[in-house]
Amino acid sequence: MPELPEVETTARLIRPHVTGRTIERVHVSWTRTLGGQSAAEFRRRIVGTRIASVGRRAKFVVFELRRGRVDAGVLLCHLRMTGRLVVDRPTLEPSPWERVRLELDRGVLRFLDVRKFGRFTHLHDPAPVFDALGPEPLGEQFTAAWLRRGLRTRRRALKPLLLDQTFLAGLGNIYVDEALFRAGLHPLRRSDRVPPAAATRLHAAIREILAAAIEREGSSFDSFYRTPEGQPGSYQHLFQVYGRDGQPCRVCGRTLKRIVVSQRGTHFCTRCQPAPRPLSSPRS
DNA sequence: CTATGGCCCTGGTTGC
DNA sequence: TGCAACCAGGGCCATA
């Protein structure tokens, strides 16, 4: 599923094709993709605007729009599970999964989404959305000290906490599992019981894994995520735990386990990531 | 503050 | 072989 590295890759690869382009026509074939707005209103807001920049915040691809010199708000695209942004390729046959199509003064930007969970919305001002998100894991605000304090001042299991976009923005199921493995921390470990040294390891693990995944243009292990160029990423070859349950740990050899945490498949090594002592444990 | 569970969706997998 | 049931999962919302 697209997480920070996949979204970053998407933004980088479409940027040169759409920056500076003007939106001339808009086709919407699945209205709910617009997140509650009508196609007519969506069209009214963005037709005639120019795409001034393409960036990323958390798992959003962010298009800044201008009408002439005047700020015209932003388009926010969230890929969720199966969304893809694709720039025009002459060979690209019309996809049955196209939900929104922006026809530009040169080229076409398509939003494809098999499962229809993705969103492509226009906001006059994204500040309320962005302000509700935690810091960027690759940004300056995300320091080891910040994470140590963040863990200490909350009492949640590590995995759901790291998945919480209001705590830290951009991680998803895959990279959380990989980061916890690298840091040697069990996904159910309570955040306020993580020793400072381990929190520091987790901070490094998160940044290293995300940076490495961006270098490889993300992960593609099923038929869903592809770069806008149609190519798969390659970080899946470096997975240590995600999807490897039943196979041996690459570090210690023990068979990797899969459990469900917060309704999500969770992969870890019982030796490298020792279980926390549950409070309810009858004896200890 | 934290946890749980339903909901949205559809293609692929599983079970009989 | 055929078909129905089941599953995955990010974010959001209601409930406890």
Structure description:
With 284 residues, this protein is α+β, with helices and mostly antiparallel strands. It has two domains: 4-130, MutM-like, N-terminal (N-terminal domain of MutM-like DNA repair proteins, Alpha-Beta Barrel), CATH 3.20.190; 144-268, Helicase, Ruva Protein, domain 3. The chain contains seven helices and ten strands. The chain has helices spanning 4-18, 39-46, 127-131, 144-152, 158-163, 173-183, 196-215; strands at 23-28, 50-57, 60-67, 70-78, 83-87, 98-104, 108-113, 119-123, 257-261, 264-268. The protein has a four-stranded antiparallel β-sheet, covered by helices on one side. The protein starts with a helix and ends in a 16-residue tail after the last strand. The relative contact order is 0.14. The model is unreliable at 279-284 (pLDDT under 50). The protein binds a DNA duplex (16 and 16 nucleotides) through residues 1-3, 32, 59, 78-82, 113-119, 154-157, 160, 163, 165, 172-173, 222-223, 262-265.
Features:
four-stranded antiparallel β-sheet, Helicase, Ruva Protein, domain 3, DNA-binding, 284 residues, elongated
Helix/sheet category: alpha+beta
Query: Largest sheet, if any?
Result: 4 strands, antiparallel
Radius of gyration: 20 Å
Residues in helices, as a percent range: 25-40%
Range of strand content: 15-25%
Please, what is the average pLDDT? 90
Q: Under CATH, the topology of the largest domain is which?
A: N-terminal domain of MutM-like DNA repair proteins
What number of domains?
A: 2
Please count the helical segments: 7
Outline, from the CA principal axes?
A: elongated
Q: Look at the structure and give the CATH class of the largest domain.
A: Alpha Beta
Strand order of the largest sheet: 1-6-7-5
Superfamily (CATH H level) name of the largest domain: MutM-like, N-terminal
**CATH 2nd-level architecture of the largest domain:** Alpha-Beta Barrel
Order of helices and strands: HEHEEEEEEEHHHHHEE
Low-pLDDT residue spans: 279-284
Distance between the termini: 39 Å
Please tally the β strands and state the result: 10
